[in-house]
Amino acid sequence: MVCAMWVEQMSLPENRPAANPRRCTGIFQSVFSAEPHAVRNVLRAAVARFAPKISEGEAGALELLLAELLNNIVEHGYAYGQAGTISLSILCDRRGLSCSLIDDGVPLPPHCLHPPDLPDTGVATENMPEGGFGWFLIHDLARDLRYRREAGQNLLEFRLPLSAPET
Amino acid sequence: MKLSAEAIDGALVVRLGEPRLDAAIAIQFKDRMREMLAHPSPRVVLDMAAVGFLDSSGLGALVAVMKGLMPARQLELRGLSANVERVFRLTRMDSVFTISADAPRDGLRDVG
Q1: Is A166 contained in some domain?
Q2: How many CA atoms within 13 Å lie on the side-chain side of A94?
Q3: Coil, strand or helix at A127
């Protein structure tokens, strides 16, 4: 009995979860309908899931990156109004936030996988582009962006790096 | 959509009271702004202090509003949160828009 208590006390420090308060672990998963308000809800939930473990800037980058990819699926993959679902998974570990997105929409055009130039902002205001920022932001924020078309589904995988946790 | 406007010292100050300017409301925002901008003020200030999130659709809507005003009228943005400001910076649209520092907390007396 005495020995068991001793062991328990000795092991206490190892059990403390707060050795590194910013160490990010955990999984977020959601399946939702491909429409703008469902996208809003899932963005809010995904950011809330990881916000305590990542910086404000990282949370903002996560929300923006996911929003651009999800909006693209809603607007182009399913072409607005067409019913469909999106599946989002996020795993947080030492490598950052590893994300995957699955949808049943039309195939992603191959050019989307190449980082685009920014729309030319040096032009006269009346010729200023109103679009073309989305994929620029996606490639700017995401790392290891990979795409597969499989069994009629689009699968996108990417990573959002996190800065080294403060120790 | 929460959007209100008042004329202050020659400027039309429009306040966007939405927490997000995103794909869900971008088109509606453009339409409502068009109605608001029927007011002939040469200077338009859009106060975005309530907005915590902007995506590329929202940014595109802002470009459309700016284009609708040019060349005779100017659009000025103020009250950008760090999260919103980042989108302007990443897309280098911070060099295209007139972005001013936060609105004074105790009202709009400095406008104009």
Answers
A1: no
A2: 0
A3: helix
Q: Pick A137's closest partner by Cβ from B23, B53, B90.
A: B90
* A17 occurs within a structural domain: no
- For A140, which residue in chain B has the nearest alpha carbon? B90
CB contacts, 8 Å: B24 with chain A: 36-37, 39-40
- The answer to whether ipTM exceeds 0.90 is no
Query: If residue A162 lies in a helix (H) or strand (E), which one and from where to where?
Result: none
Residue type at A106? Answer: V
Does A146 reside within a domain?
yes
Residue window 13-52, chain B: list those with CB within 8 Å of chain A: 20, 22-24
The class level of CATH for B3-100 reads alpha beta
Mean pLDDT of B12-34: 96
Question: According to the model, what pLDDT value does residue A20 have?
Answer: 52
Which pair of tokens denotes residue B74?
């100017």
Q: Do A39 and B96 touch (CB under 8 A)?
A: no
Residues B26 and A89: their CA atoms lie apart, in Å, by 27
Cβ distance B23 to A131 less than 8 Å, yes or no, reads: no
Cβ-Cβ contacts under 8 Å for A136 (sequence gap 6 or more): A115, A116, A117, A118, A119, B90, B91
For A18-27, A110-119, B2-11, which range has the lowest pLDDT when averaged over its residues?
A: A18-27
